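ARCHIVE RECORD
Type: protein–small molecule complex
Small molecule: NAP
Source of inputs: curated submission
Record status: active
Notes field left blank by submitter.
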Amino acid sequence: MSKPDVLAVAKLHPFYREALEAVFTVHDLAQINDPVIFAALAPRILGVAGTGEASVPRSLLAQLPHARVVSVFGVGYDGVDVPAAIEFGIPVTHTPDVLTDDVADLAMGLVLSVGRSIPQANQFVRAGRWPDGPIALARKVSGARLGIVGLGRIGKAIAQRASAFGMSIAYTARTEKKDLGFKFYPTAAALAAQVDFLVAITPGGEGTKHLINAEVLKALGPRGFLINVARGSVVDEDALIEALSNGTIAGAGLDVYVNEPHVPPALLRFGNVVLTPHMASATTETRQAMADLAFANMQAGISGQPLRTPVPECAALLIK
Ligand code: NAP
Ligand code: 8YV
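STRUCTURE (tokenized, with ligand):
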């Protein structure tokens, strides 16, 4: 008997791909260039496999009459047209919680990297510059003021880690979380004005586009650092480049970009910017846990079993 067919809409992590291939036939959308071949395959597709960065537009979902699930390998699903998926009766799943620790760890790693100039110091030693003089003084992290934009699962995990560094914690989100005891600011600009390190960790998409803009960067000020581990779209990249050029902010630590995997050349030129390649969840342990969960969701969706982790919009729908 042939294996059921699923469609991969992005380059899948090998852990996820291997799990899928054991049970399903995986077709890569990127390799199907002939519309006639796609039209013949589309009615056989039972599941769609994506990543946090993948695009699953209405136009694609509309061509998959028998799809039963979109399983995203990632917690963010801003590339999926969820209203369209709901309209077509295709639930969307993602991988929350299993990556929270890793993303919070990398956010703190970037705070320490930009504050203490660790990558720059590494370059300083390797370039043989140590004998010529001491490295420039850095910024103390312990006891500094941290602002978190988006106090969800990962934001709270960042706050927990930062508390251990004696940092004071403030945040902005759509809703105030009075039980947590951190200072709430209604806007990112109001928060930025009161902190030394501003960490963005919201979902991407239209609702958060350019949440960190020129006004926020001005409020952060010449001694403030921006960390973005959310999505590239959350930060106005042009405004950020301008702010770095003018010394409006002290520096930045970035894991995500507007046009991944392409990084604006201007960002590569700043010595006070630390760049990582969208790797916040990229440890063996976490990528395995994400693959297990994404696979379990795919299998459950295709076999009509309860989904492990539907996205909130679909969870509400499935309960009704
Ligand atoms: P979550 O638990 O849903 O938390 C999201 C937080 O963002 C919530 O506190 C939410 O506010 C806040 N938020 C949403 N829209 C906002 C807005 N317009 N203004 C201010 N705050 C807003 O999600 P999570 O698990 O923490 O993940 C967050 C995001 O991190 C993901 O969606 C993804 O984009 C990103 N991420 C990146 C990586 C990476 O590799 N760099 C890895 C994993 C995740 P409320 O609490 O008021 O609803
Ligand atoms: C992954 C992510 O890098 O979970 C997310 O939202 O952005 C990351 O964990 C991505 O989904 C894997 O490609």
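CURATOR ANNOTATION: The domain at 5-96+285-319 is CATH 3.40.50.720 (Rossmann fold).
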